[in-house]
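Input chain follows. Return structure tokens only.
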Amino acid sequence: MPWLKKGRRPYLLYFASPGRVDTMQSKLQSAMEYLMTYGWSILIIAVVLGALFGLGVFNGAAALGSGCVAQPGFLCQMPVLSSNGLLSASIGQAAQQQITVIATGCSNTASEPSFVGLRPSVELTNGQILTSISFQCPLVSNTIGSSFTGTLWIEYTTPQYPGVTIPAELGTIGVKVAASGAPAMVSTSSSSSTTLLSTSVSSSTESSSSSSTTSIVPTDFVFCVSSASSPYNLTYFAPVSSSGVGGWNLSAQYPVPLSENRGAACDISGGYIYCLGGSSGQNASFYAPISSAGIGNWIATTSYPQQITLGFCGINGGDMYCVGGLANPQATYYAPVSGSGIGPWTQTTSYPGEMALSSCVFASGDIFCIGSGISNTNQTYFAPVSGTGIGGWNLTTNYPVIFGQGSCFVSGGYIYCIGNGNNNPTQDYYAPISGSGIGGWNLTASETGTAYDLSCKIHNGYVYCVGGGTLDAVSYAQVLSPGLSSLSGTTPNPNGFYGDSQSCQTATT
């Protein structure tokens, strides 16, 4: 070739086509997209795993299923069970300013167990957690890894009533035998403590040694103004649910002593409880705010025109209506209620019978009163109620037996009556109720034995009865509308209850 001269090296020139360059750029872009996509995926997975580790999902205790679900107002966590039945747990409370725990107990049922005294006892303030508190549990099997379910309990006193011992269920536990050694029964003087972030704790499930506490504030309660033993002005409250009644707590004392075997006539409206009566002030009237912390400070309000002992008082449509009482079993009065108390009382249509030691209910714009505990009758009357008082009384279907010292309530178009001091064994009945009166009565689930001087209240489809066959009896049942399921025992009242049909009331706070 003429252009290829001797002594020169030939060169090969390569020219990339535009299409080839685009292909290389495309491969680089694909690689970057691959790295970005999977890089973010890996990062997200790492964050999720970190969160799961933080929550204790991979903790050995969670894998064993060990935990404690506390009753409202209490806390229990970190249960560790040894093969000799000793269980160590952390406990706390947010129901009262201060309690003194004097004993602990563990049951393999929901029933109250035998208690083992703490030596020395330990003070537990509101929002505090005590660690390494010991409970003696009745094991069915002490094999390592075997399961145990049951309830933890404490007995405690309060500074206000140091002589009154109160049992309370802390919570339900599910735990496995994890050690063959035995934690020593606690020396509470050396127990460490920390402070809860929440001042109201009701549920805590242990998933790791550093688990967080879940705070669920209960909203449904029963409030009782009655006491079967000295001092006779104690008041109690407890959470209620479809599982029954939770641990009882003392609340603000009623301003005057109640009769030894009678409670106050009370009802709840607009976040306040209104009560009448008391042995040293039988026409006294008081009201107080209610909340998840119990009954607040009592305030005196307009006194009832006469003694109201054993009479009925209830609120309907912004007014309180009172019927009967030992002093005058036919007298009836009504008065407006508000956040400022009870207004002036006005006399209205007299009751045709003798209303005392019995029960009345409101339904369909009327008041219905059943029987009488002082005249031993089964007569039933009803009358219209309005902002101008009670209208004319009319006889309606008599109760099947003489009725007194029982308690009645209304649900789903039916009236239910539980307990009866004039019928042994007690038989409970229900009947349809309307503005035309009460229909035919039907027998429903009955008490086992005699039940009287009790207060039964309906709340969220369940009825809760305080008092009855024994002073500390507390029972509950589902309302089937019509009829009731069988009444079941639940957490007993610590100081006993000997009151009237209106001495206990339920409310959502």
